[in-house]
Amino acid sequence: MKTDLTDTTASKINKALVKARRAIGTPAVGMVLTLVIVTDEENAYDALKAAGDASREHPSRTLVVVKRVSRSPRDRTQSRLDAEVRVGADAGTGETVVLRLHGEVVDHAQSVVLPLLLPDAPVVVWWPVNAPLDPANDPLGALAQRRVTDTYACEQPVKELAARADAYTPGDTDLSWTRITPWRSMLAAALDQVACQVQGVEVEGEEFNPSCELLAMWLADRLDVPVRRTRSAGPGLTAVRMDTDCGPIVLDRADGSLATLAIQGQPRRAVALKRRDTAELIAEELRRLDPDDTYASALRYGVERLKQGNGGDAPAKGERQAVPAPVESVAKGPAAEATAEAPVKRAAVK
Hints:
28% of the residues lie in helices and 24% in strands. The protein is α/β, with parallel strands linked by helices.
């Protein structure tokens, strides 16, 4: 069921939600959180579709904030709020309100969103594109327990990661980090099978891919070994090679779907390591609402190295070329104990 409201207010939107729930025979509210999506008109459809798919696992009230650009000075001084209320089959397993802001109200989106938040429920704010450099100090981000960005959508992902590290606040996270969860889990499982000392690591993937940089920084942070970042034609991450005193451990994924795990002295194994869509990524992020300390540690580890840049001409298809500024480890104290989010351990007792 859809209800269109033109030149409306937050109070009228709340009344429309109650009326729509009664009309479809579900007056009770069984949602677990409020998901606020801040986007533009171009990306609103894709973000809304991903949130709808994720709501099957996390029933939520989804508020989509679309800031419309006013073309003339007169339009910029006239505030207007249009809304589209969706309940039932049109909104997944929760409720959806698309808010289109015009004029001066664009600068006060938090005043529109605040009355529509579910009472006594967590709030997650997600910027699919054009995220602020400091999400925690953004007026909308200040309302949330978790703030989700995506550096993959930025023009200069490496510089964006450095800015994220400088402005990190507990509760911040990034979908570029979420994309490497299967890689981290697989590498942890591989190290659990051997009792060897890791001496060095090579992370291979697309140039300017923030997930590759985050994986390299995470490995360097957790293993205290030199990590070299090399380039490939992709797609995404293509391989991780760990040199140990018992022989190499290689996790290679050339096609973006099926990977091969090779451990010295063991038969090669094919493992599913497909590239996940946005709905799966956002659903994973909604499973936890506490600060991700492992992400924070990995992000801060490589900031200075990222600022040096990993530039260079893009390699030809299939060509592997080393990045001029490799990521190297520094002397650190004992690493924090491994958790489900950071399962890789130090491969063996040092």
